Amino acid sequence: MTLKLRTRLVITHLCTALLTVLFFTVTAGLFTGFLFEKYADVTQARKTAALVRSLEDQYQESGWQKEEIVKIGVQGLSYGFITKVRDAGDKVVWDALEHDREACQQTLRHISHSMRRFLSGWEGEYTTKTYPLSKGGKEIGTLEVGFMGPYFLTELELNYLGPLNKILAVLALVCIIAALTLSRWVNKGLTKELDKINRLAGLVAQKKSYDPLLFTSSSEEIRKALDNIKQLGQTLEEQEQVKKRMTADLAHELRTPLTTLQANLEGLLEGIWQPTKERLSSCHEEILRIIRLVGDLEQLTKFESDQMKLNGATFDLGELAGNICLNFQGAYRQKGVVLEFVGKKEMMTGDRDKISQLVVNLLSNSLKHTSTGGKVILVSSSNKDFIYLVLNDSGSGIPPEDLTRVFDRLYRADISRTRATGGSGIGLAIARAIVEAHHGSINIVSQVGTGTEVTVVLPRNYLKDKTMESEV
Ligand SMILES: Nc1ncnc2c1ncn2[C@@H]1O[C@H](COP(=O)(O)OP(=O)(O)OP(=O)(O)O)[C@@H](O)[C@H]1O
Ligand SMILES: [Mg+2]
């Protein structure tokens, strides 16, 4: 069952308030019962002591004063006591029940009724207690006091204490009303904030523009959520741009060889041109260019997919980079560019083939963009956890406005020049995908006319740790 958050919160708050009130009422009830019992004990003891004292006082050498005993007995009845006085010989001198049975029974009934009304759990039954009476050190008899036990309070006393229960009930009501009001207030604020998140997410999802200033909050968590949605919106926008740019670039890349092919084939078909070897090989070259582009794109998609499969192996990166440099020496020498490698043994665990491709891509870029007489130097170094590959060339450099985009697919800083070199603008995108798959980083610093420096940082054991993790 789906409930509105507001309803859920009201129910939660109400339940909390009710539970608190219940706990409070039960505790207060137990506590007042205990206090009443103590209070009743003390008043009962005080009243019986007063009766005993009055009886002892009225006793004369000549014996009991009947009229006085009656007065004391009637007073006892007003306290809720049914009294019985016996002399030293255990003979009944006066018995309240005999004196006025109806009044006695009525008093007891009255007390039971009031007590039950006041304390719902009260269960009283007729109890008697006997107190010795003495005068001048001589035993003169006993006073038997009958009452509704184990404890009771008279109506007058209950009238004093009675409002306590009412106060508790009013307090409970106030608590519930306060909880509901507070809940309403809190819920209103919270749902308003959630509404804001909802609206912003909706605008971002529909790619609609919004005023960022309208979507802020004084609550830290909500502000973070709003900021994250804004960030998400920006990322989506950027991705959209990249997608559009890539499609446009791809169309542009394909159009050139296709137009050349079309023109050539039409000329051949219409008999304007003869199918000479040169003309056919020019068409063949264009087809090769398209095939290379499609192949590069295919490879990049494979590298950029989340499931790029890395075949982990432990190898010497210094040795690998040195060998690749050796393989490149011929091409570099042909162009009149000096290639140098400085490095030692650097053991790491990673995908040897992919790291090798990374170095090849970087070295081929430097070769392409460094003119005769230039110098390219590759240095490998390391610390405990990372291996650094720094490739420095004295080539043409990359303009600052292109520097942020050279890792994008199909992006080439100087299209007219790089087309001549046959690049598709994918080498660096592949390099970055390889480095990121190894949880490393790649960074380019460049200055037009001075040269370019590419720094690659690779964790020495990322793949090893990962393999161990999956084995565990
Ligand atoms: N060392 C460098 N010196 C100057 N410019 C460079 C250098 N490396 C890369 N670039 C610029 O960055 C662009 C992107 O490089 P990337 O390697 O991705 O593509 P490419 O070399 O043009 O083509 P591909 O590598 O796919 O054959 C290049 O076109 C070039 O303009
Ligand atoms: Mg390249």
Q: How would you summarize this macromolecular structure in one to three sentences?
A:
With 472 residues, the protein is an alpha+beta fold. It contains 13 helices and 11 strands.
Looking at this protein, list some descriptive labels.
61% helix, binds adenosine-5'-triphosphate, 13 helices, five-stranded mixed β-sheet, Heat Shock Protein 90, binds magnesium ion, Beta-Lactamase
The chain-level mean pLDDT equals 86
Order of helices and strands: HHEEHEEHHHHEHEEHEEHHHEEH
Q: Estimate percent helicity.
A: 55-70%
When the domains are counted, the total is: 3
Structural class: alpha+beta
- First and last CA, distance: 41 Å
Given as residue ranges, the uncertain stretches (5+ residues, pLDDT < 50) are none
Largest sheet: 5 strands, mixed
Notes on the structure:
This protein is α+β, with helices and mostly antiparallel strands. It has 3 domains: 5-173, Beta-Lactamase, CATH 3.30.450; 220-287 and 294-299; 308-471, Heat Shock Protein 90 (2-Layer Sandwich), CATH 3.30.565. The chain has helices at 5-58, 66-79, 96-118, 155-161, 163-205, 220-269, 277-304, 317-335, 352-369, 400-403, 415-420, 427-437, 462-471; strands spanning 82-87, 92-95, 125-135, 138-149, 312-316, 338-342, 347-351, 375-382, 386-393, 441-447, 451-459. The protein has a 5-stranded mixed β-sheet with strand order 6-8-9-11-10, with helices on one face. A hairpin with a 2-residue loop joins strand 3 and strand 4 (138-149). Helix 1 (5-58) runs antiparallel to helix 5 and helix 8 packs parallel to helix 9. The site of magnesium ion (MG) has 5 residues, from helix 9.
